[in-house]
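[Discussion] Sanity-checking designs against the backbone

I'm trying to build intuition for which residues belong where. Below is a structure token string of 177 positions. I'd appreciate it if someone posts a full sequence so I can compare it with mine line by line.
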């Protein structure tokens, strides 16, 4: 039979030595409901929290990171297409793949598109070639993972540059970050 000691639940445990019966009340827990449910639920919550923490550590940060930039001719050093504009979106993955989608308007057909190293107002070398001749204005290319890590850590130090026959030095430009 179960009982109540000072408002806390207890269960009677009996031991039967020879010809005697003794009753001893054993306190189950500080849980007023008298069940182990509270203790069990706390253990489940702790286990779930530990699992989530381990899972978060197992998934690499920046497994895939997305960047979006407004492209304008006015951003080109030395001038680009004055009425051209567009948007560049890229997804950089840890494995070195870079998927891109370039949308442009009021500009002659794009012949080349790249990510260059350089802060706003400064030209720099190509670090990722989108190979628009093969891919058009959307697709995926491979890049050096060290370069992608550098872009992720300092996106303002890199820019998108789109070139065409009218503006071979760059028709549209926008910083990655």
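Best answer:
Here's mine. Compare freely.
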């Amino acid at each position: 039979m179960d009982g109540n000691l000072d408002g806390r639940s207890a269960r009677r445990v009996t031991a039967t030595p020879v010809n005697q019966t003794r009753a001893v009340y054993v306190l189950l827990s500080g849980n007023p409901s008298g069940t182990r449910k509270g203790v069990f639920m706390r253990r489940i919550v702790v286990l779930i929290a530990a699992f989530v923490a381990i899972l978060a550590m197992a998934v690499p940060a920046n497994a895939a990171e997305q960047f979006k930039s407004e492209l304008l001719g006015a951003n080109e050093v030395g001038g680009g297409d004055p009425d051209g504009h567009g948007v560049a979106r890229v997804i950089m993955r840890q494995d070195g793949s870079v998927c891109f989608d370039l949308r442009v308007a009021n500009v002659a057909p794009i012949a080349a598109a790249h990510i260059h190293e350089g802060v706003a107002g400064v030209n720099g070398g190509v670090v990722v070639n989108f190979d628009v001749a093969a891919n058009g204005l959307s697709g995926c290319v491979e890049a050096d993972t060290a370069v992608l890590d550098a872009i992720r850590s300092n996106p303002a130090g890199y820019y998108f540059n789109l070139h065409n026959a009218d503006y071979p030095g760059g028709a549209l430009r926008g910083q990655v970050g």
